[in-house]
Write a structure and sequence with these properties.
heterotrimer, A mainly alpha, B alpha/beta, C alpha/beta, A: MetI-like fold, B: alpha/beta, eight-stranded mixed β-sheet, four-stranded antiparallel β-sheet
Chain lengths: 285, 316, 322
């Protein structure tokens, strides 16, 4: 019966247009990231074009920056950074949020109150200020630190949402029925409650993924990004810093901007499609 | 078979849990083997709370519950799992009892995994089909379907079948037919009565007096957590004693009689809220000086198999 | 006042097609009549009730017309119906207690409501207080918020609001379902009192609880799967029903004095058809113990005795022979 269930979800998943479109876009960029090193000849940070900023040509597909760097090379490597921050930063945030949310929602009482306090504190911390302070102490910031930081500060809303959902689901009769079938609490959380929230959990991860990318881009844009690599956000920062907007060097800031928009947008569309796949009632049977 | 002895449930409410809410107060009742007892009360009477305490879904604040003589007030782990082999429940909302993303027969799978892991797929399948037929369902029509593809009546029978698979001796039926259509209600009710004749004991929780009369030999009337009248259904209905029971009888819409005058003319000014009998605020015959304003009256037997908790009947 | 519905047919538009929720309903309501509209879930009684006052998508009027006091009600035109709502036709919705805005004091809400209908609050205050007294609510309730009242009190408040402008037709949609026994009796009796005092003229009481209808309704109309089955005086429906569905339904209701051990009641095997693609003709024929070939054609809802309407070929034929 379990096999049938997996196949059934797959069946509907493959036929959902929103899911196809959204996933397609994301996979496209992912493919670009993975295949990138094969397509890119230049080091993204190397000054390859002595002529400085130049629009796209057959030699430099996305043109070159103010300093003569290959925009396409930067774009491809930047994409990698973007995906890494999404997976690790978003993943960490989701994981912490889930653990806190499930525990608080299922146990209730004093456990819930304590975790609630923790959530509120982290929510209220002014992340920018903290980051500035950390930036002042760290000489070199790596992509990894950025991921950890995002993960540790973005989980509260996931925790809140998961807790609220767990609360509602916990009072439903089918949880009582599982208890009366001899199931233990942990089994119930993972076998009854979590699957019911599957689309919610996946949605939470996808939103965290997209959110992490956006936060990273913002941090990069204001100069708090990693110091030892290139990312899409950093590209945009340099572009604006060096007058790309004023001088009309659209090929410098447009690709990273569109890239971020397309990936995050694709993720969100995927999300809506997934909800239809997971919820039998939304399907037209 | 099942005995409640002075069972209470107190919730802490208000800011910092300063106030107490007595959902159930010192309820004692008994259900014999192969008997259906109706637990009748309106919303706020505590009837569902009692059901859930028996099913160990919420804890007991004080008092004890006995099953076949053994004290089952506090159970956990292995003992609780064994308890669930004997005692099960079915609730009011058929659709809420099923995890909506799984198929309905998953409830059987849970039972198989926890209690009958040694049975093979085919053996289990046979057992399931047999039980489904015994509750009046056609296995081909109801297996392998999602809950929203089945009707309320079918879902409730499914749950009864699940309980029967465990070979239970006691079922808590909490308003199990109130959400069903009138024409299917009676069929599920008849099923319960059928099972009773085969040895099952049922605590039938309801707010509907007529259903109680139809299905059970004994009844317990609850008001705001206290038992106000208890005994043989026939005797209670023929001769309701407690003012609340009389009010219920007079107010329930019937098909054989129109609403008449209220049960009794008020005896002067009714007592306001305060300590004492739980019904004092609405009682037309309560008056100070007879204990109505001091304490909750205990159950006293007025005729054989008919007890009432009212000071009006404990004089002399 | 008089209400006449002719061939009223209302469908619900869904992605999978039209759900034929109400099919060819033709009936009349007399001045001062309290008619109960009874049936099980999905029979179309709520559709009928709502189509008389708020016919909005996904509902659509497929055929038929409704006349109230000789005037055709523009039920398919939501804007034009605005003139009639609350004045000529009013409704006490299901879960009425949730219809009160929780952030508004009740008096303020009443004032806004009256103002939107072009009535003056201050001028109507004495009458409002009289009505509150009628439903045993103190005038102080106007200064309270909805959460301060109990379920029964809120229900009565909504009753007062719905009848404030003395509508000709009042539709009461399951107003007693969520209440306790004592509140049910109070609310049901108040409905009759309203009619008696002229706060409203005629009432359609929609409910699945036939025993309440026995207590307060003058006549009962039974529906099944979107079709009208039977309409007659309350006494006739309860004690001498003619339609097979009504007969089975009445006999499946437990009454005082009925014990399982003495006389086992029977339900109706099977379940109502899905209305997306309902069977042709009489929709009860698949569960009916006396169905025959003629039932493939929908029976007309005709008067077989004075004031007694039935849609059943068996009864029509029996009547023709008598």
């Amino acid at each position: 019966m379990k096999k049938l269930k997996k196949n059934e979800f797959l069946y509907f998943a493959l036929r959902n247009t929103k899911l196809q479109v959204g996933l397609g876009v994301v996979l496209l960029f992912l493919a670009l990231t993975l295949a990138g090193p094969l397509l890119v000849r230049n080091d993204p940070l190397a000054y390859v074009n002595l002529a400085g900023a130049q629009p796209p040509s057959s030699r430099y597909w996305f043109g070159t920056t103010f300093f003569g760097q290959d925009v396409f090379a930067q774009f491809v490597v930047g994409l990698r950074a973007t995906f890494v921050v999404g997976v690790i930063g978003g993943g960490l945030g989701t994981l912490i949020g889930l653990l806190v949310g499930f525990t608080a929602g299922y146990r209730g009482g004093i456990v819930d109150e304590l975790l609630g306090m923790l959530t509120n504190i982290v929510l209220v911390i002014p992340t920018l200020a903290v980051l500035l302070i950390i930036a002042a102490y760290l000489q070199v910031r790596s992509l990894f630190t950025e991921c950890i930081f995002i993960g540790l500060t973005a989980w509260p809303w996931v925790a809140r949402a998961v807790r609220a959902q767990t609360f509602t689901l916990r009072t439903r009769d089918f949880v009582d029925l599982a208890r009366m079938s001899g199931r233990k609490s942990l089994q119930i959380i993972f076998a009854e409650i979590a699957p019911n929230m599957m689309s919610y959990l996946v949605m939470a991860f996808i939103l965290q993924f997209g959110g992490a990318i956006l936060i990273a881009a913002t941090l990069d844009f204001i100069g708090l990004g990693p110091t030892n690599t290139i990312s899409l956000g950093l590209m945009m920062q340099y572009a604006v810093m060096w007058g790309a907007l004023l001088l009309g060097m659209w090929w410098w800031f447009l690709p990273p901007g569109l890239g971020i928009t397309a990936i995050v947008g694709g993720l969100y569309v995927m999300n809506v499609g997934l909800d239809e796949v997971f919820n039998p009632k939304l399907r037209e049977m | 078979m099942l005995k409640l002895d002075q069972v209470s449930k107190i919730y802490k409410i208000g800011a910092f849990g300063s106030k107490d809410l007595h959902a159930v107060s010192n309820v004692s009742l008994e259900v014999q083997d192969g008997q259906i007892v109706s637990l009748i009360g309106e919303s706020g009477s505590g009837k569902s709370t009692i059901g859930r305490m028996i099913l160990h879904l919420i804890s007991i604040s004080s008092g004890r519950i006995f099953y076949d003589g053994a004290d089952v007030s506090r159970l956990s782990g292995r003992a609780l799992k064994d308890y669930y082999r004997r005692v099960q429940g079915v609730f009011q909302d058929p659709f809420s009892s099923y995890n909506p993303i799984f198929k309905a027969d998953r409830v059987f799978k849970l039972i198989h995994d926890e209690y009958f892991p040694e049975l093979s797929g085919a053996e289990w399948g046979e057992k399931v089909e047999g039980t489904l037929r015994s509750v009046g369902l056609n296995p081909e029509h109801v297996l392998d379907k999602f809950p929203h593809q089945l009707s309320g009546g079918q879902l409730q029978r499914f749950l009864i079948a699940r309980a029967l698979l465990l070979d239970i001796r006691f079922l808590v039926a909490d308003e199990i037919i109130s959400m069903l259509d009138a024409s299917t209600r009676i069929d599920v009710l008849n099923l319960l009565a059928d099972l009773e004749s085969r040895g099952l004991s049922v605590l039938f929780i309801t707010h509907d007096l007529f259903l109680g009369y139809y299905i059970s030999e004994r009844a317990v009337i609850l008001y705001q957590g206290c038992v106000v009248e208890m005994g043989s259904t026939e005797k209670i209905y023929a001769n309701p004693l407690h003012p609340y029971t009389r009010m219920l009888m007079a107010s329930v819409p019937r098909l054989d009689r129109k609403w008449g005058e209220p049960a009794e003319a008020p005896n002067g000014k009714p007592l306001g809220p305060g300590a004492g009998c739980v019904y004092r605020e609405r009682c037309p015959i309560a008056y100070a000086g007879s204990g109505c304003d001091r304490e909750q009256p205990a159950l006293s037997e007025v005729e054989s198999d008919h007890s009432v908790a009212c000071f009006h009947y404990t004089k002399g | 006042m008089s209400l006449q519905a002719d061939n009223l047919t209302v469908y619900y538009q869904t992605l999978r097609g039209d759900v034929r929720a109400l099919e060819s309903a033709t009936f009349g309501l007399r001045d001062g009549e309290i008619m109960g509209l009874a049936g099980e879930s999905g029979c179309g009684k709520t559709t009928l009730g709502h189509s008389l006052i708020l016919l909005v998508p996904p509902m659509k009027l497929v055929a038929g017309r409704v006349t109230l006091d000789g005037e055709t009600l523009p039920i398919q035109d939501t804007e034009r119906m605005n003139d009639f709502r609350f004045r000529k036709v009013s409704i006490i919705p299901q879960y009425a207690m949730n219809a009160l805005n929780p952030t508004r004091k009740i008096g303020k809400m009443t004032e806004e409501l009256l103002r939107s209908r072009g009535a003056d609050y201050q001028a109507g205050l004495p009458e409002l207080k009289r009505r509150l007294d009628l439903v045993k609510l103190s005038p102080g309730v106007l200064g309270m918020y909805p959460f301060e009242l109990s379920g029964g009190m809120k229900q009565r408040m909504v009753m007062v609001l719905s009848t404030l402008l003395n509508p000709s037709l009042l539709i009461a949609d399951e107003i007693t379902s969520a209440l306790d026994v004592s509140s049910q009796k109070a609310v049901a009796e108040m409905l009759v009192e309203f009619r008696n005092r002229g706060c409203c003229n005629s009432v359609i009481v929609i409910t699945h609880d036939i025993s309440i209808l026995y207590q307060i309704a003058d006549s009962i109309m039974v529906m099944y799967a979107g079709q009208l089955a039977e309409k007659a005086s309350t006494e006739a429906i309860i004690h001498a029903p003619r339609h097979p569905y009504t007969r089975l339904l009445i006999s499946s209701l437990p009454k005082i004095g009925a014990r399982y051990t003495e006389k086992k009641l029977a339900g109706i095997p099977g379940s109502p058809p899905l209305l997306l693609d309902p069977p042709s003709g009489c929709r009860f024929r698949e569960r009916c113990p006396v169905a025959f070939e003629r039932c493939l054609e929908a029976p007309p809802f005709i008067e077989i005795e004075k004031g007694h309407f039935v849609a059943c070929w068996r009864e029509i034929e029996a009547n023709a022979q008598a």
